[in-house]
Amino acid sequence: MALNVVMMGPPGAGKGTQADRFAAGRQIPKISTGDILREAVKAGTELGLRAKAVMERGDLVSDEIIIGIVRERLGRPDAARGFVLDGFPRTVAQAEALDVIMSGRDPLVVVDIAVPDEALVRRLTSRWVCRACGANADPGQAGVPAATCARCGGPMSQRADDREEVIRERLRVYARDTRPLLDYYRARPTFRAIDGAQPADRVATALDAAIDDAARGARGA
Ligand code: AMP
């Protein structure tokens, strides 16, 4: 059975880091719509030009554009054995479209990494990212980010949308557009919620257990 995972949670919950680790461990691709958009902005493609201003004010790129990107990506051969979606879906319309894309495939396992708002603002204002390889500095080391990346030695900088006023807007958008998604998924037998306010390694252990348990349930084991 393919392991088709949707990783949910507010900005700063550690979704990206956890999704990276989980996908690498299970040898399935991590598909981050935020990463795809940031690549497009960097490359200056038409998609990037359209997305840049929307992203910089903390708003959402249109459902139509994002759904098209994900439909194409999930159709590639490397996603047939499973995938981890990070940052998608973010609206009920995107979740409905994903269900259509997934018809005839193994069921989605949906995990929500829950963290209170004030902890998120603290984490995000102290988040630094490597400009060369994209690695995050540990948000736990607030305020004193290393100048160079621990993984590749590249230069660290803050994301354009990690300024406090943009973060507050992203959290507002999350509460308005994305939190309702939890109700969309909560009743499914393959939905699991995780406490994201614990150290990253504990979150990782909880995630592994929750995803395996949900997948076992879906298989009818
Ligand atoms: P992320 O890295 O997931 O926080 O995404 C960064 C930004 O990209 C978001 O604040 C949105 O502007 C945009 N974005 C990423 N994923 C989506 C999505 N599923 N729907 C709409 N906009 C998105």
Task: Describe the main β-sheet briefly.
Answer: 5 strands, parallel
Q: How many strands appear in the DSSP assignment?
A: 7
- Give the integer mean of the pLDDT values: 91
Proportion of helical residues: 40-55%
Kindly report how far apart the N and C termini lie. 12 Å
Could you characterize what this model shows?
The structure is a single chain. The longest helix has 20 residues, at 200-219. A 5-stranded parallel β-sheet has the order 2-3-1-4-7, sandwiched between helices. The model has no long low-confidence stretch (mean pLDDT 91). The chain has a single domain, classed as 3-Layer(aba) Sandwich (Rossmann fold), CATH 3.40.50. It contains 9 helices and 7 strands. By secondary structure, the protein is of the alpha/beta class. The chain binds adenosine monophosphate.
Brief sketch in words of this structure:
The chain has 221 residues and is of the alpha/beta class. The protein is built from nine helices and seven strands, in the order βαβαααβαβαββααβα.
